[in-house]
Amino acid sequence: MWNRRFFLIMIGFALLVFFAITAYADKEPVTDLAKGGKGKIFFYSPNTFTFKDILIGAGSKDQVTIFGDLKMPKKSSGKVPVAIISHGLSGVREDDSVVARAVNDIGMAAFIIDHNKPRNISGGEEANRKISDAMRVADVYAALKVLSTHPEIDSHRIAVIGRSRGGSTALFAASEKIRQSFCKGDLRFAAHVAFYPVCHVQFRNIKFTGAPILMLLAEKDNITPAAMCMDYAKRIESSGTNVKIVVYKGAHHAFTSPRLSGQARSHPHLADYSNCLDRYVQLQDDGTWFFPYMQKTFDEYTDWDELTADCQLKGKGKIGDPRRARKKSLKELQTFFKQIFDLT
Question: How many C-beta atoms surround the C-beta of residue 23 within 10 A?
Fold first, then answer.
């Protein structure tokens, strides 16, 4: 009986995997959106794993089909701005829908891009190993180019928003050299918003496009410590880019989650990195990595857990917003876009 049950379970699991892989197989990726459209949109993205591929022009010729969900505002007149939303390691969550609704409510479109599912990756540690920051950046730039052709979208008012790992994607996308690697002419992101981004990975030489940046940080974030982001923001601002920083008192990582509104809890799989504030990793113009605390340069980026093995506290990371930071941050987001995109 047990063997039969096990057999049926395995058959069921195999079918689920099959349908997960083939569910998008018959979807034709678009190269432009000249005919408009909304909902799930499939498009090509360069299969670029390292920043060296991007920065020195040695990019992969392979392409991967990914998708995003385009949500248009209920009321609009003329072409509207759009925000491309990049999720965290765990994949598209309710947090992303919350952010999408916030921008829809002020007359903007929202495009929630999925980095994980199109690559048949569930999230968490698997995504950390198999989806690089360079791949994420390639995805959002591919989305920028496709969305810029949509007849209802203003190509001069396309922003990128990210949370956690997606927040670092939003900051990487601000690099002028990276922009030039993907876009010809003046096409660029008009704004960058990072919710509690991963700030231990930075640019060594900051040459950004000049588009305004908003960082929404958590005072008690011990997973992506706010102190590292505030230091990075000062470096970015000193380079001539307008950066606004808001730090929410009492808040922890992932404060955008509706499930964690009004509470905070420990996350069993995330570490406390608050003792690792000197472990910056800086991306150089040639795609190599400089480690300031070691004063060494490496061709490849070493795994973060290896770099912090002696200072991290495993299983001690905390998430949540006991002081309702989520609602405050969404209002701050709306105010930011209203100002820079002249929305009423």
Answer: 10
pLDDT in tens, 168-177: 999 999 999 9
**Is residue 285 in a domain?**
yes
Domain membership of residue 204 as a residue range = 29-340
What would the pLDDT profile of 141-199 be if each residue is shown by its tens digit?
999 999 999 999 999 999 999 999 999 999 999 999 999 999 989 999 999 999 999 99
Asked whether residue 292 is assigned to any structural domain, the reply reads: yes
Residue 311 lies in a domain: yes
Number of structural domains found in the chain = 1
For the stretch 307-342, pLDDT in tens is 889 999 999 999 998 888 999 999 999 999 999 999
**Biggest CA pair distance of the chain:** 70
- Asked if residue 8 belongs to a domain, the reply is no
Contact criterion met (CB below 8 Å) for 96 and 50: no
**What's the pTM value of the predicted model, to 2 decimals?**
0.91
- What's 98's domain CATH number? 3.40.50.1820
CA–CA gap between residue 147 and residue 153 (Å, rounded): 7
